[in-house]
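Trying the structure run again after the queue cleared.
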Amino acid sequence: MIIDSAYGQPFPEILFKDVSLPFSKGAIYCFSLSKLGLAGLRTGVVVADKPIIDAIKSINAVTSLSVNAVGSLLVLKLIKSRAITALSRDVVKPFYQARLLTTLELCGQYFRDLGVRIHRPDGAFFLWLWIPDLPITSSELYQRIKARGVLVIPGNYFFPGISDSWEHKNQCLRCRMPKM
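Done. Tokens:
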């Protein structure tokens, strides 16, 4: 089982709800440090049994001939000193929580009378908007607002294999949270 904890515990811990990460033998845990403001370093951490880690190292050796070591060295220091926990709790989480609250406030202000709903935001990077009475598909809406310089992603791309008759997937937009 692969557990994607890009937003969760122990870092960057920006889910804004009580969750616990169930550690289990044989599972593969993936963490991302891009939420620490180091997106350009594309550094991640994988915790798994040694044979899995050895396989991942082999894959990386083939697919990434020149890996940037800056992120790895930084992460190693943060983990060894245990500073990563405090950094997540005291800096990263409050920053993204404030960003989320501001975004929700703006959505309430501007979308209140438009019938736009917000899916429960369990992170701080993307916001899912649901427009149940949208008279066109989210792809058509995307084209219209793109012409005005606003970029979103039509929701239908995130529902592979789900029947075309399910209208919900054509009524949603995935939006990147604005930078504050």
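The radius of gyration is 19 Å. Worth checking whether this holds up in the mutant runs.
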